[in-house]
Amino acid sequence: MRSAPIVEVKSHFSAFLAAVEAGEEIVITRHGRPVAHLVPPTGQTAADVFRPLWTGESMDEFDLTAPEDSPPEPVATFN
Fold this sequence. Notes:
This protein is of the alpha+beta class.
């Protein structure tokens, strides 16, 4: 983990973002004291994102019903 003062981060912001995007963690300091921590985002699965929608009380907020099955359609036959 690397640390850098705010002045340096402001001057080379794009380079710091590229480093974070590559997986590096950076602590931003002011007068030698940490004030922020840049970290790459963690990956989320669809299940992580939608879990609150199908668990607990949040399900009561949605009125979801499955559509009725439609009758089968005729299929063309080839001879």
